[in-house]
Amino acid sequence: MSKTQVRWIVVAAVGVALVAGLALLFAPRPVPVDAARVVSGPIAESVQDQGWARVREAYVVSAPVSGRLERLGLKVGDHVTAGETMVARIRPAPADLLDPRSRAQAEAAVAAANAAVSAARSERERLAADARRADLALSRTRTLAERGFAARSALDNAEAEAKAARAAVRAAEADLKARQAQLVSARYALMGPDAAAPQAVAVTAPATGYVTRVLQESERTVAMGSPLLEIGDSQGLEAQIEFLSQDAVRIHEGMTAELYDWGGAGTIPAVVRRVEPQGFTKVSALGVEEQRVLVMLQFTGAPSRWSALGPGYRVWGRVYLRREPAALKVPLGALVRSGGRWAVFRIDGARARLTPVEVGALTDREAEVRSGLSAGQAVVLFPSDRVRDGVRVAARREAS
Q1: What is the CATH number of the domain that holds 90?
Q2: pLDDT digits (tens, 9 = 90+) for 204-245
Q3: CA nearest 186: which of 123, 93, 115?
Q4: Rg (Cα) of the chain, in Å, rounded?
């Protein structure tokens, strides 16, 4: 072999090596990704939102009369018994002080009422005498009619006169009572602050429970019907959750629920007692108007589990819409949007394949896959923008 041939062979070998090195240098490398397996297990579809604890049956005690309320000795949390515990005392307000003109007018009204009573009494006595005379005339006419010395018409006239006389007496008695009532009213109008104060009215608890709010604590003058305090039964505690209206339409009475992030250990089991039929508008912290619906969650289980809760405490409520004991699940981070649908990057050999899936229940960690995948298949977690359909991938770790 000549030197020229050897030289060409060496040059060709170097060229092949150089091309191979450049090919290896610029060849696309597999994209490192995190992977997870499609598994089968239980999953629950739920909705959750914030709310607060409240007393289911609350009683607002109001003032039965107008007057001076004595300072309330009860505090929030005090226990009361229905019909036994006195929650308030109200002294009826004394009469106002009369100026000279008003007093003179009141005294004149008393004198006029006295005169009217005297006149009514005299009229009643006169009519009573007429009634007795009519009764005697009737008795005589009846005797004469029985003996045939008086006509039937005369007896009828005597009976009518006697009845009219007795009716006049009854009317006179009623008028006398009215005049006497007017006299009493006129005398009360003369009463001033120096009159004897009426007895204080005691207000007792309408229900057994605990004082949840004190609305009027200090001594003051209150009007009839003014709210004084609120009583509630802590055993009847429940949660009031403000759900978005699009979530509330899927909630029905009797569904299983629970409270979480309420400050205590674990969760509190509950059941949906009521879904309010009307929503309301609430502005969120971001300034967005939202339509909310109140959903009442009644606690279940031992009361000791929520003994630390009180009315007005902030809680989180979760309502379970559907439970699936054996569902195909993927981590929530594996889902991507493609063409307005959900999809995942399934690892097929060493390449990522964009696979559309039908998603069911969603939790904060997992998603139910109803179609598109099978158990045991690997999917890409949190795919970056380098992951495309058909690109080569290398799993650096597999999530458990």
Answers
A1: 2.40.50.100
A2: 888 888 888 888 888 888 888 889 988 887 667 889 999 999
A3: 115
A4: 47
Rounded to two decimals, the pTM is 0.56
Please name which of 334, 323, 344 lies closest in space to residue 389, comparing C-alpha atoms.
344
pLDDT value of residue 396: 79
Query: Is the residue at 155 inside a domain?
Result: yes
> Do 105 and 87 reside in the same domain of the chain?
no
Mean pLDDT of the chain: 84
In terms of Cα–Cα distance, which of 387, 384, 399, 398 is closest to 352? 387
Range of 269's domain? Answer: 47-55+234-325
| Same domain as 151, residue 290 | no
**What is the rounded distance in angstroms from the CA atom of residue 261 to the CA atom of residue 267?**
8
Quote the strand ranges of 245-349, DSSP E: 256-260, 268-275, 280-283, 289-299, 314-331, 336-338, 341-348
Look at the chain and report how many structural domains it folds into.
Answer: 4
Quick one: how far is CA 188 from the chain centroid? Answer: 47
Query: Would you state the structure tokens that stand for residue 212, as one six-digit string?
Result: 């949840």
Is residue 172 exposed (0-12), middle (13-18) or buried (19+ Cβ within 10 Å)? Answer: buried
Of 143-157, 169-183, 341-355, the one with minimum mean pLDDT is: 143-157
Q: Of 343, 341, 330, whose CA–CA distance to 378 is shortest?
A: 330
Indicate whether 21 belongs to any domain. Answer: no
